[in-house]
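quick one before i forget lol
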Amino acid sequence: MIITTIATGRDTEYATELGAVAGAYPDGDETRLERIRIKATGEVEIRLSWWKHGRLIPRPLDIPVADFLDLVKAATLAGLLSARYEPEPPAASPPPHD
């Protein structure tokens, strides 16, 4: 598995990606550990996902323990995770509509 940091900024109706690391396999599979902000709540969460040839696969992510630990290490080095839990304040609320 080759680990890379992914450029941030992917934005969907559900969440905004704040950062990600990916582990690529020779067969085109990719695992991702993403730090995302949920739009409905402002909460910051971690998402683990499975991708195949650039497309999200809506199934559970099963990877070897060693590969998972490599993703966690890369995410920690990239600043997506910290050695201890530090709550992040929610995003600012949008202004009320008139």
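fyi Residues 32 and 71 are 8 Å apart (CA to CA).
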